[in-house]
Structure formats: C-alpha cells, structure tokens
Design goal:
- The chain has a single domain, classed as Beta Barrel (Lipocalin), CATH 2.40.128.50.
- By secondary structure, the chain is mainly beta.
- Strands 1-2-3-4-5-6-7-8 form an 8-stranded antiparallel barrel.
- It has 1 helix and 8 strands; from the N terminus they run αββββββββ.
Length: about 130
Amino acid sequence: MNDMKTKIFLLLTLAITIIGCDKDDDPTEINVDGNYIGVFERAGNTSDVELSFNIGTWTGESVTEKFPALCNGNYSISGNVITFENACPWTAEFDWTLILSDDWNYNLNGNTLVLTKANGDIYTLTKQ
C-alpha cells in the first residue's frame, strides 16, 4: 500500500509541476527600450528620425514633416513583431499609411534596431 501512495504522490507532484509552468514568460523576448536615431525609408525616399521606447510607450520625430508621421503612443511586442498604436490626431492632407501604427517585424542586433512593414517601409535605427 505504501508503494501505491508513493506512486500517487509522485504523479501528483509531476502534474503540479507541469501545470505550474508559466509558458507566457519568454526570457528570449528582446527589450527595445531606449533612444534611437536613424533613417526611415519608403520607395527610395528617406528621412532622418528619432524614436524612443519606454516600457510600452513610444515617442518619435522626423526631420521631414509627416514622412513618416511620428508623434507618440503605445507598443506591444509578441515574438518578432512590434504592434504600434498611435495616440495623436492627424489632419487629412497626407498619406495616413505613413503614421507609425500596426504591426512591424523587428530585428535587434547589438545596437541596431530594424523595423520592417509588409508594404516595404523600413526604419534602420541605432540605439544611443
């Protein structure tokens, strides 16, 4: 009977250990927080930009007005995708696809952060 209790105890311990593992914590998730300067490019046209990331919020500026359209908002990271939410109001006289929003693939290699969007837009940024 003791042998059966030992087996049940071990099975319960194993089950609790497996259930208790939190798969939402991804220690490989990259922290992009910091200040970056670099270049935005669309279809061969470029502009110097600055972006800052701080615990889920972002701010940005572009040398060329509304190319890209940067202001501020929130961001979240899932895998290799950063999802931007823009918090600023915009006027209607320009291409709203230039507003930093939606999903962007990212790659952080050393101090270089590269953001790419499905339409071909790219930010190449260096952490300061």
